[in-house]
Specification:
alpha/beta, Cobalt-precorrin-4 Transmethylase, domain 1, Rossmann fold, 3 domains, 12 strands, about 40% helix, binds iron/sulfur cluster
């Protein structure tokens, strides 16, 4: 058996800096430290911080007046910042700069009075954050190509679109194609909103799919980009699974398989992948592991003042 590790996987620059912000704030100010929403969508990153005194909240009302709060990598709508200021909270914004870029596009399009089609998953924290920067009367949220047919926007209007950063590159391309058919003058953001990390991880899974007969993605159930990786593998016709941790994977699924591809979402720590490799090697001791030099290793985002 051979095990192939996807060449780009695991923490992206946005997640690495959000995790480092919480680490540094814990060191400097100690517990309890409040974080608005899960800092990144990974069960074990969140559990580890909880154990060390981080309190994750879904509402500013849950934070005592004057306390310190960190906003998660997914971004927050502006009313949350306003509320934090009104409550006298000290805050650090760990929003990924690539999400902030989408927020700025939303503000710019709103100022121009464009009807704004926001492509993403309803209820996802990032989409909620971005939607907060769009003028409510101009906002149209869609998830699928079918939703394009339901859009009730006059052809006279200027229409622009934005996307969540962690969508399926292929599916989103299909939605945008359909939008362009419906609105020929459709205005695109200056640079694609789906981020480099999402694109690279999906491309790397497509590479795995060329040679592997099973693909296992490490990632939590609420992680958008991890779920898209499993779908990417499945869409290439390869049996694909997503697991939060190695213990969830049934090694019997490897019976008869010769080449196993492993990848992980942008919020997954490396030890989770290592644990899965160890588990497979325990059952197949002669399995050879192929890994690659990470081409993203020099991408680092600056930290805010903590
Ligand atoms: S997945 Fe992309 S947008 Fe999200 S935190 Fe990582 S780099 Fe930023």
């Amino acid at each position: 058996m051979e095990i192939f590790l996807a060449k780009t996987q695991g923490f992206c620059a946005g997640v690495a800096s959000a995790v480092e912000i919480v680490e540094k704030a814990l060191q400097k100010y100690g517990a309890p430290l409040y974080v608005y929403h899960e800092i990144v969508h990974n069960t074990y990153v969140v559990a580890d911080f909880k154990q060390r005194g981080v309190v994750f909240v879904e509402s500013i009302d849950e934070v005592p007046s004057g306390a310190r709060i960190i906003f998660s990598a997914h971004g927050i709508p502006p009313y949350v910042i306003e509320k934090a200021k009104l409550r006298g909270l000290k805050f650090v914004d760990a929003t990924c700069p690539l999400v902030t870029k989408v927020h700025k596009e939303a503000i710019k399009f709103s100022q121009k009075d464009y009807e704004i089609v926001l492509i993403g998953h309803k209820g996802h924290q990032e989409l909620t954050g971005t939607a907060g920067y769009v003028d409510h009367d101009l906002l149209h949220i869609i998830e699928t190509e079918q939703d394009v047919d339901k859009l009730d926007i006059s052809s006279e209007e200027e229409v622009a679109y934005l996307t969540q950063t962690t969508l399926s590159v292929d599916e989103t391309a299909g939605i945008i194609r359909k939008l362009k058919e419906k609105f020929p003058r459709l205005i695109a953001p200056p640079r694609a909103d789906i981020c480099y990390a999402t694109q690279n991880r999906q491309d790397a899974v497509k590479d795995l799919a060329k040679s592997c007969d099973i693909i296992i993605i490490c990632g939590s159930p609420n992680s958008s980009n991890s779920n898209r990786l499993r779908e990417t593998g499945a869409n290439q016709g390869v049996e694909s699974y997503i697991i939060d941790r190695a213990e969830e994977f049934d090694v019997h699924k490897l019976k008869g398989k010769k080449k196993v591809g492993i990848s992980s979402g942008a919020s997954v720590p490396r030890w989770i992948v290592d644990e899965l490799v160890d588990k497979i090697k325990h059952s197949y001791p002669s399995a050879v592991v192929h890994s690659f030099d990470n081409p993203e290793k020099n991408i680092v985002f600056p930290l805010p003042t903590i």
